[in-house]
Amino acid sequence: MQRRRLGKQGPHVSALGLGCMGMSEFYGTPDEQESLATIDRALELGINFLDTADAYGPFKNEELVGRAVRGRRDQVVLATKFGNQRLPDGTWGPVNGRPEYVRQACEASLKRLGVEVIDLYYQHRVDPSVPIEDTVGAMADLVRQGKVRSLGLSEAAPATIRRAHAVHPITALQTEYSLWSREPEDEILPTVRALGIGFVAYSPLGRGFLTGRFRRVEDIPKDDHRLNMPRFQAENFQKNMAIVEQITAIAREKFVTPSQIALAWVLAQGQDIVPIPGTKRRAYLEQNVAALGVRLTSEDLRGINDIAPKGVATGDRYADMSRVNL
Question: CB of 197 within 8 A of CB of 120?
């Protein structure tokens, strides 16, 4: 397995991580046994970077990941997040970055994961009501206490990243990045590169859209959260299919899958980028790992850029973009 370093001083992780969110919620009916088997297979293949959050499930995903790594904690770089509050009934509370909540959330995550230390602890979303210095100051206290090894932010704006990094070194910035979500190229990537912060790309397969598995809206399960996302709806869906069809044509020429082309493209954008495609099935996991062997020439990259320039996708990433502080 290829390795990449998260930032100038962060851990070396597998070039592909594993996003575990969909194992517990959002993307259809969970299958706990297959999810555990998928994590097992990921570790066998050399993936050592697992991504979860307290909000996923809610709370159940951390417990699942904790069970999966029990007895082999030293093989895993474990990342989790706080800040997107969920109530026990699953409803969403406000984003919370208050120092007292940071400490409370960390203790709860440690307990659910069944570990003594979290390798990478992200603020899931920035709380606009709390100065980032206060939130990161509390996170830095967790590092000093030995409960957290390194700090991260998710979906933070450039100025916020700089202010946070001035309080305590930020190891990684996690943001959506894929062929149909290239916004980070404008300001986010230049900012983190200037500061020596690693970049973790979530949803590098466009929440599964870029895999080509969905040909019609009706192909998406009725209990799947993607049906609520603008890019998956009605006319937007059909317009976005044009991207997938062209990527599929390139994939056929190389005897690979569209998802492997999409992942290979993200991997080719820099050694400081670590995609974390999510899946709850071993077959898709193995397909994703095989993308590490796909080589894109400069001509390939130019062709892909022509197909998927910045802003190519039709529709917003989320139904309510106010939850994303970019």
Answer: no
The three-class DSSP label of residue 10 is coil
Confidence of residue 259 (pLDDT cuts 50, 70, 90): very high
Residue with tokens 């990921």: 42
Q: What tens digit of pLDDT does each residue of 180-228 get?
A: 999 999 999 999 999 999 999 999 999 999 998 898 888 888 888 888 8
B/e letters for 315-324, b = 16+ CB within 10 Å, e = fewer, are bebeeeeeeb
Burial 261-286 (b: 16+ CB within 10 A, else e): bbbbbbbbbeebbbbbbbbbbbebbe
Cα separation, 172 vs 202, whole angstroms: 12
**Residues noted as catalytic:** 56
- Are residues 277 and 289 in contact, defined by beta-carbon separation less than 8 angstroms? no
Q: How many C-alpha atoms does 64 have within 13 Å on its Cβ side?
A: 30
Helix (H) or strand (E) holding 171: strand 170-176
pLDDT score recorded for residue 320 = 59
Give which of 300, 319, 312, 316 is closest to 242, Cα–Cα: 312
29: exposed, middle or buried (Cβ count in 10 Å: 0-12, 13-18, 19+):
exposed
User: Could you tell me if 47 and 209 are in contact, meaning their C-beta atoms sit under 8 angstroms apart?
Assistant: no
Is the model's pLDDT at 130 over the cut of 90? Answer: yes
Q: Are 51 and 202 in contact (CB under 8 A)?
A: yes
Joined together, the tokens standing for residue 235 give 């006319």
pLDDT value of residue 220: 86
